[in-house]
Structure formats: structure tokens, C-alpha cells
Design goal:
The complex is a heterodimer. Chain A is built from 26 helices and 23 strands. Chain A is α+β, with helices and mostly antiparallel strands. Chain A has a 19-stranded mixed β-sheet that branches. In chain A, a hairpin with a 2-residue loop joins strand 7 and strand 8. Chain B has a single domain, classed as Arc Repressor Mutant, subunit A. Helix content of chain B is 59%, strand content 15%. Chain B is built from four helices and three strands; from the N terminus they run αβααββα. Chain B has a three-stranded antiparallel β-sheet. In chain B, a hairpin with a 5-residue loop joins strand 2 and strand 3. Chain B is globular. Classes of the chains: A alpha+beta, B alpha+beta. At the A-B interface, helix 1, helix 2 and helix 3 of A face helix 2, helix 3 and strand 3 of B.
């Protein structure tokens, strides 16, 4: 038995050992008395000292303190409730933010060995793409020694009979299910041995949700044939409920990638290596013993090898950039391609902002609670004095007071954990997040909540404990400082929230700069059906001719990106040191008229304008702030001449008025990937199905995606509005906390000065004078706090500038409104308890001690 | 009277030494040290019992119940093999230091 075990034995059996020790000492005294000696010292004290040797005294003291703290808190339920509520708010906000971060970045996807999965993007000096041509991936698959398996995914929409909306389908490599460790609920999943060959039977795996919605959870669905894009495919299984594939939204169907050309007639997906062609999202399973860096290095070498054979298709110095593939961020990047380096991810910035706001709220809560504890010190003067007089040392007192704070913090942590979970759950339901993003707190969130509580306890509990134990709590400096600090922090929060809300509101209420109410987009995805530029030209020509003759159609245009769509094409260029992301649109001359985007200066594009460019007014302002942009050279992949300036239109990000666009005349090569935009004279609901059937009739092999721009518009708007709601909730939480703090402080100050107020009233003070006396002491710290808060907000909002979309970070209206709201609510909150001072009966007040 | 008349390390050494010849109860330990030192060293309760607790924790002695000369049930402390080894080590340390000090005192 070593020393630690013996020590634990003493802890466990400490009652028995204590009895034995007592008996030893008693016997010692008996013997000493028997032989005429004088027993010395206090027996209890001696025993305690001997027991010290066991090393467990601190636990006893701590549990003593804890019991005492629990008793104290139970005795003042009002204070305890207010304190726990404040802490629950402060910690809960942070738990929610951290919980979301945990969900997104720290918690792995529900797949096998998520840590060895990598997601690959293509990068080169002046180009990037989030997807790869399938043949490039196949080349890597054949030659890589660091990656044991490649998984590819190509999302598509497939038409089926009896369904107006096309089904979402993911064409995946046959190893998709086995590599991700997914099993089938019914039948079987895809199997590389049976479904991997190019001459295999066309098969389909249903998602659990689709099986329930479309087949009523029919257990006999396996073996049935469904027709997709008019071609039969056999259902071989239903995926397990929790399997979502590598995607945030579970698709309806999974099909083997090698069936893609069979179902999408004419598709070149499996053979086209060109960078403009179709692509697949690629994940790789890292071979044990290799790091992602080594794999990147190998793939770079392989890419260079492939470039020897296909110098036009593989970029110069192309590298494959990897990111962890088993985590949510790898699913959320859209199919982005563009020139220039890839624009930075904004997710971390947003989290940083939320975390900063959350910490400010926690700071406000701590400031509040700290001044409440100080005020309580006044009420506990007698108790503290008694404890000092019976021999409690300063250290012991501080420990005791801080234990109370720790207990409060622990209660607050638990309540905050609950509050954070609740907020996150509501948020998830609100945004229709996929079910596997489970907001229930895991050990990381729990540890975070306890840690936040501990930090909070140090922030709000330590200084008051020191002050109270030293009987210095009447010193007003610290209290005034705490009031000032919390006013400053709440003020910062309110102003920042106000700025964000105003920016979002500004984005929503100003016109997006283009027509969306009466435009229908038709995306036939000709390229994925193997249309050549010539046949695409013929298709669009005949479709446009038919549409123009349709009554209710005002104009028709072509564009290579659908407004408010997910596919974007951008070019990043440097303008006076700042990187500007230009949205590239390749359009035909009717585009501006159809989308109702005004041409402010110059002329429209005309056929044959291969070197002409129209830039948006926002881009013109950036590029040539003082000069006339017309006739200027604009260099992207070549030199272009600016022939016109159009109105600014927020075609992609509705909330961003600083978005800049450039328009080129579409080249013949762009035609297979273009969409048709139709401006209707009346609301487009009735016309949409007509257009769909007309487009469908033109080529039965093709199943065009017809949608109204206004539905996309509403969808995008919802997300933005939710952001505004979340931010204003944060602001109001801060305001609420500040009010709670002020109410508590004023109430205490009234209680503490009852006698003085009674005296003043007896001497004939008017109610307004009494109120003035009560509230005067708060005016200076509140004023100072406001000043500091405004300064802090001005500084902090500097880094917010790019999220503010055209609102100045010093927007006077926001500052004035935030300060006004703050002052009015705080004064009202202060008056509530202050009125109690007016009801004091002078006679009674003077008699009480 | 200052409670720590002798350094606690010396007290441990003395306790171990008087226990070498057999188990004793606490009071007897104090008495034995007192009489063997010709009434020079007094061991107070306040020093003896904390030291005994420390030695127990170290595992150098064990305690067992026995009957005192006054017919009372008391704890007797007995040296363990580990305690014996510790005693030898401390004794030889002590002798070495003692001799060194002696030689300095004699020659200086």
C-alpha cells in the first residue's frame, strides 16, 4: 500500500480514524494527570492539528464552506434567483455560440473514420475551383499511393413521372456507402463489386425521407423500377435514416456515377477534362501513416504529370488543396469557380464577431453581479463582524465568500447550459437544419459551460470577496467602476447590434437593382446533356422564338449565371491594395432590358462585341472614382474596353450593396451552360407551367429546371432577416441585463439609506429632491460608462466595416438611437425601485436601526 | 514554552528509535524519550500526535489495539520493516553529520 492509498483510506474512514485519535489523546491526558503532569492546550485544537497530517483538511473546510454557502443562498431566494438568471443569460449566450461552433467545426460527421477523410479543391495561381473534372480524379485514383480511396459526388436534378418538381439526386462513386460506413435500412447499398462497372445495371438507392414521402415507407419497394428522366432504374435499397451522404441536405436518391451518362442523355461528365466542363466534388480517404501535406504534395506531382498529356485542361502549377473532409465546413462550400485566389471564408469571421458579442454580454452580467455582491456586503456587515470576532481569519472569510460565488456560478452554468441548448434548438428548427446536426450539448459544451462559469466567478466574485472581507465594501470607487464598466459594455453591444440591424435593414429595404417579381428562369442544363455550342444555339433560338410569340411574355434573355442562384463565377482583382471580387456575367444584349437593369451611361453590348465590357456603377466608382470610365481599359483575362455603365444590381448577395459586377457578351462556347430569363407582363405564377411544358416539348431528353426569381428572392431574404433577429436579440439581452443590474443597485441603495431618506423627508424634502438624492450617485458612473461605450463601439465597429454594407460604422442615427434607448430604459428601470424611497414612512425609518 | 523544542525530523527519528525494541502506546513513547534523555527532552502532545500521524501515513509504523497498564483499550504503535529501514538510514545519516560537526568543533 503506498502513501496515496493510505491517504485515501484516511479520507474514506476519517470518522473512525478521528475517533481513534481522540481516544489516544484522551488516554494521554489521563496518564499525564495520573502521574501529576498538567495537560496543556486545547484538546480539540490539538486533534485538528494532528489531523492536518492526513492532508484532507481543505476538503472538510470546502464542504463546510459549501454547506454554509448553500444555506446563505437559500435564505435570500430573491438575490439567488436574480444572480442565477443573470449568469444563465450571460453564460447561455456563450454556450449557444460555442455550441454552434462545436457543431460546425469540432463535431465530426456521422460517418466512419471522419478524421482520415479529406475534401479536395483545385488551386492554381490565378484560378480556383471547388470541383474537379471526373477524369482528373480518376487519374489520381489510379496513381495515388497516399490516398486509399477517392469518393466523388455530382448533384443533379432528375425528372420522374407524376412529380412536378424534379428529384434531387447525387451521382456518387460506387464505394461511397462502404467508405462512409453506411448500411442500408432495406435491401442493399451501392456495392463497388456489383455497381462499379460501366456496364452494370442502372440502380438507385432511396433516401429514408424520400422513401417515406414518395413510397409511403413501403417495405416491398426493393426491386421496383422507377423512371428517371424517362429511363428505368431498379431500386436496390433504402439508406438508413441517419445517413445523409456528404451533404447538408439529404438528397432524394443516390445513383452510381457511371450511370450518369445513361440518365442524363449526352452527358460528358465522365470524359470531359476541360476546366470549363462539368465537375465532381471529391473526397479522399487518407492511407494510414500519411499526413494531408504529403498527400497534397503527391497530388501536385500527379497533376503536373497529367498536365504533360493535357496542357490545355490542367492548370499550370495546379495543386490540390485539402481540408478536413469529415466535418461540416467541407459540405458547405458551394460549387464555386473563379479566377484569382479563392475568396476567404467568412464563417470564422462571423464566429469571431458572435464570440466577441457573447463575451461582452458575459462581462456585463459579471459587472452586474459584482456590484450586487458589493451591495450585499453592506447588508452582511453584522454577519461578517461576528465571524471575525469568533476568530475567522481574513483568508478563511475570502474563501467562504468566494465559495458562495462558485456555487452561484455552478448554478448559473447549469442554467446557462439549458438556456444555450434551448436557443440552439429553436435556431435549428427555425433554419430547418438537418436532423443529424444535434444541438444537445456534448462533453465539450459541458466543459465550456463549467469553464465559463468558473471564469465568471473569478470576474464577479473575487474582488467583492476581497473588499467585503477587508470591510472596505463601502468604498465607492470599485462600485462606481463596476457600474461604469457594465454601462459601457452594454452600450457597445447595443450600438453594434443597432449597426448590424440597420445594415441588414438597409440591404433589405433598398431595391436590389433588378426585376425579380416577374422573371422566370429556365435552366435546361444543356451542357450536362452533351450539347455542342451549335446545337445549344439552335435550341435557344427556337425556344426564344416560341416564347416571344407567347402573350404575357415581355422579353427574353440569356445569361450564364442565374440571378440569386447558387452558381457564381467571379474574378478577384487588386484595386489600390484591396482585393475586390467582381461578379462575372456573360449575357446577351437583351439581358439589361429583361432584368430591368438600367444602362446609366454609354451603350449596350451588341453582337460581335468580343472586347467590350459593361461595368456596374459600383465598380466604376471603385475603379475610377474621379475619371470617366467610358473607353477605359479593363484587364481581366485579357484587355476589355468599357463601353457602358449599368445600374448596380445585387444579383448574388442581396444584403451587399457594395457588390460589383461586370458584363461580357456571351461567347458561343458559353451557350451550353446558359439559362434563359423570361420577363412576364403579369405575375408569373400562371405562366411558369406553360413555359415548362414548352421547354420540355422542344427536346424530350431534357428536363429543364423552371423557377420564379421571386421564390429565390424570398428564400434569400429569410436568412438575412434571421440574422437581424439574432443580432437584435443579443442587443436586447444586453439591455435587459443592464436594467436588471440598475434595478438591483438602486433597490439596495434605497434600502441602505432608509434612515437618511426618512430624515430628509421629516425635514420636508420634496419627492423630486428625494429621487435626486437616490439617483445622483449613479449619474457619474453611467455618464462615464456611456462615453467609454460610445468610444469602444466606434473602435470595435472599425473591424465590422465590411459587414455593414454601405452603412458607415459611425452612423450617427444608430448611435443616437442606441444611446437614447439605453438612457430611457435605464432611467425607467432605476425609477422603479427608487419610488420605494418615496413611500418610506419617516417615523418608522428613524426608529429602525 | 515554545512548542517546537526539537526539529520534527529529530522527533521522528527518536520515535522510530524507541519503537525498535517493541510496540508502545503514545504516552509511553513520550515517557520513554523523556526518561532515556535523563529528563531533558519533553515531548508535547501537540508535537507527538501530528508526528505519529505523518509516520503512519508514510507506512513506517502500524497501529494495533492493546491493553494499557491502567487496563484501558489503547492503540500501540509498531515499527514496520519499512520503518526499520528508514530508521537505519536516518541513523547512519545522523551519525555522519554528527561526526562531521564533532570534528569541526574539535579542530576549529
Amino acid at each position: 500500500m503506498n502513501e496515496l492509498l493510505r491517504r485515501l483510506n484516511y479520507l474514506w474512514n476519517r470518522r473512525r480514524f478521528d475517533r481513534e485519535l481522540a481516544s489516544d489523546l484522551e488516554f494521554h491526558r489521563e496518564m499525564a494527570a495520573h502521574e501529576g503532569g498538567m495537560p496543556l492546550g486545547n484538546a480539540l485544537h490539538l486533534r485538528e492539528e494532528a489531523r492536518d497530517a492526513w492532508g484532507w483538511t481543505w476538503i472538510e473546510r470546502f464542504s463546510q464552506d459549501l454547506r454554509y454557502a448553500a444555506r446563505i443562498l437559500r435564505k435570500s431566494p430573491g438575490f439567488t434567483l436574480a444572480a442565477v438568471l443573470m449568469l444563465a443569460l450571460g453564460i447561455g449566450v456563450n454556450v449557444a455560440v460555442f455550441g454552434f461552433f462545436n457543431l460546425m467545426f469540432l463535431r465530426a460527421l456521422p460517418v466512419r473514420d471522419p478524421d482520415t477523410l479529406l475534401r479536395f479543391d483545385r488551386r492554381a495561381a490565378d484560378s480556383f475551383s471547388n470541383d474537379l473534372p471526373y477524369p482528373e480524379m480518376a487519374f489520381f485514383c489510379d496513381h495515388s499511393k497516399t490516398i486509399s480511396a477517392f469518393l466523388a459526388l455530382n448533384p443533379a436534378k432528375l425528372a420522374t413521372e407524376g412529380q412536378e418538381k424534379p428529384l434531387t439526386a447525387h451521382f456518387v462513386t460506387a464505394n461511397f456507402f462502404s467508405e462512409l460506413g453506411a448500411s442500408a435500412k432495406l435491401g442493399r447499398a451501392l456495392d463497388p463489386a456489383r455497381d462499379g462497372a460501366s456496364d452494370a445495371e442502372p440502380v438507385v438507392v432511396l433516401s429514408h425521407g424520400f422513401w417515406q414521402r414518395h413510397f409511403g415507407a413501403d417495405p416491398l419497394v426493393v426491386g421496383k423500377t422507377i423512371r428517371l428522366n424517362g429511363r428505368p432504374a431498379t431500386v436496390i435499397g433504402v439508406a438508413a435514416d441517419e445517413f445523409t451522404g456528404l451533404s447538408m441536405d439529404t438528397p432524394d436518391l443516390w445513383l452510381p456515377l457511371n450511370q450518369q451518362p445513361y440518365l442524363v442523355t449526352g452527358s460528358l461528365l465522365l470524359t470531359d477534362l476541360s476546366a470549363d466542363g462539368p465537375g465532381v466534388r471529391v473526397w479522399g480517404r487518407l492511407q494510414p501513416g500519411f499526413t494531408p501535406k504529403v498527400a497534397e504534395g503527391e497530388l501536385k506531382t500527379l497533376a503536373a504529370e497529367l498536365r504533360q498529356q493535357h496542357p490545355k485542361d490542367i492548370w499550370e502549377n495546379e495543386s490540390l488543396h485539402s481540408q478536413p473532409g469529415g466535418y461540416a465546413p467541407s459540405l458547405m462550400e458551394g460549387d464555386r469557380r473563379g479566377s484569382g485566389p479563392e475568396p476567404p471564408d467568412e464563417a470564422y469571421f462571423i464566429f469571431g464577431l458572435l464570440a466577441a458579442l457573447g463575451l461582452l454580454i458575459l462581462a456585463v452580467a459579471c459587472g452586474n453581479l459584482g456590484s450586487l455582491l458589493l451591495a450585499r456586503g453592506v447588508a452582511r456587515e453584522r454577519e461578517i463582524a461576528i465571524r471575525v470576532s469568533v476568530g475567522a481569519g481574513k483568508g478563511r472569510l475570502i474563501r467562504q465568500l468566494f465559495t458562495e460565488s462558485l456555487l452561484l456560478a455552478l448554478l448559473g452554468s447549469v442554467a446557462g447550459l439549458g438556456a444555450g441548448y434551448f436557443v440552439l434548438r429553436v435556431l435549428m428548427q427555425f433554419t430547418e437544419a438537418p436532423a443529424w446536426l444535434n444541438p444537445a450539448p456534448d462533453w465539450r459544451v459541458a466543459v465550456f459551460a463549467i469553464g465559463a462559469g468558473f471564469v465568471a466567478a473569478i470576474l464577479f466574485g473575487l474582488t467583492p470577496a476581497l473588499q467585503v472581507a477587508r470591510q472596505r465594501h463601502r468604498a465607492t470607487i470599485l462600485r462606481q467602476f463596476l457600474i461604469g464598466a457594465q454601462v459601457a459594455a452594454s452600450c457597445v453591444l447595443l450600438i453594434v447590434a443597432g449597426l448590424l440591424v440597420r445594415a441588414i435593414d438597409h440591404g433589405i429595404t433598398t431595391q436590389p437593382g433588378f426585376e425579380y417579381e416577374r422573371v422566370i428562369s429556365i435552366d435546361p442544363a444543356l451542357g450536362s446533356h452533351g450539347y455542342s455550342p451549335e446545337s445549344a444555339r439552335a435550341y435557344f433560338d427556337s425556344l426564344q422564338n416560341r416564347l416571344r410569340n407567347l402573350s404575357g411574355v415581355e422579353s427574353v434573355a440569356l445569361s450564364d449565371t442565374s440571378p440569386l442562384g447558387n452558381r457564381t463565377s467571379s474574378a478577384g482583382i487588386d484595386m489600390d491594395g484591396r482585393r475586390v471580387e467582381i461578379l462575372i456575367n456573360r449575357v446577351d444584349p437583351a439581358f439589361f432590358q429583361t432584368m430591368r437593369i438600367p444602362l446609366l451611361r454609354g451603350r449596350n453590348l451588341t453582337f460581335g462585341d468580343t472586347r467590350a465590357i459593361i461595368i456596374s456603377e459600383s465598380l466604376a466608382r471603385r475603379a475610377w472614382p474621379s475619371a470617366d470610365p467610358l473607353g477605359k481599359k479593363f484587364t481581366l483575362d485579357g484587355d476589355y474596353t468599357v463601353v457602358g455603365v449599368s445600374g448596380s444590381a445585387r444579383l448574388v448577395r442581396l444584403e451587399d450593396p457594395e457588390m460589383v459586377q461586370a458584363y461580357f457578351l456571351a461567347r458561343a462556347a458559353d451557350l451550353p451552360s446558359m439559362v434563359l430569363l423570361v420577363k412576364t407582363a403579369a405575375p408569373p405564377e400562371s405562366l411558369a407551367p406553360v413555359l415548362a411544358s414548352m421547354a420540355r416539348a422542344l427536346d424530350p431528353k431534357i428536363f429543364p429546371d423552371v423557377s420564379m426569381l421571386k421564390s429565390s428572392f424570398r428564400r434569400k431574404m429569410q436568412g438575412t432577416e434571421r440574422g437581424a433577429v439574432a443580432v437584435s436579440l443579443l442587443g436586447f439581452t444586453a439591455l435587459l441585463l443592464a436594467c436588471l443590474g440598475i434595478v438591483g443597485l438602486v433597490a439596495y441603495s434605497v434600502a441602505q439609506r432608509t434612515k437618511e431618506i426618512g430624515l430628509r423627508m421629516a425635514l420636508g424634502a420634496k419627492p423630486s429632491q428625494v429621487l435626486f438624492v437616490v439617483l445622483r450617485q449613479f449619474s457619474r458612473p453611467v455618464g462615464a460608462g456611456l462615453l467609454v461605450g460610445v468610444g469602444g463601439a466606434a473602435a470595435l465597429s472599425q473591424i465590422l466595416r465590411r459587414e455593414l454594407y454601405g452603412i458607415s460604422n459611425l452612423d450617427p442615427l444608430t448611435y443616437a438611437a442606441a444611446i437614447a434607448i439605453f438612457v430611457v430604459t435605464v432611467v425607467l428601470a432605476a425609477l422603479l425601485p427608487a419610488r420605494r424611497a418615496l413611500r418610506i414612512d419617516p417615523m418608522r425609518a428613524l426608529r429602525c436601526d | 514554552m515554545p512548542r517546537n523544542e526539537m526539529p520534527s525530523g529529530a522527533l521522528v527519528l527518536l520515535i522510530l528509535r524507541v519503537l525498535r525494541s517493541g510496540a508502545l502506546h503514545g504516552y509511553a513513547i513520550a515517557q520513554r524519550i523523556h526518561s532515556l534523555s535523563s529528563d531533558v527532552l519533553r515531548v508535547e502532545e501537540g508535537a507527538l500526535y501530528p508526528a505519529l500521524q505523518r509516520i503512519l501515513l508514510k507506512g513506517w509504523v502500524t497501529s494495533e489495539w492493546g491493553i494499557s497498564e491502567t487496563n484501558r483499550k489503547v492503540r500501540f504503535y509498531r515499527l514496520t520493516p519499512a520503518g526499520r529501514k528508514q530508521l537505519e538510514a536516518e541513523l547512519s545519516d545522523y551519525h555522519r553529520v554528527h561526526q562531521a560537526i564533532q570534528s569541526v568543533l574539535h579542530t576549529a
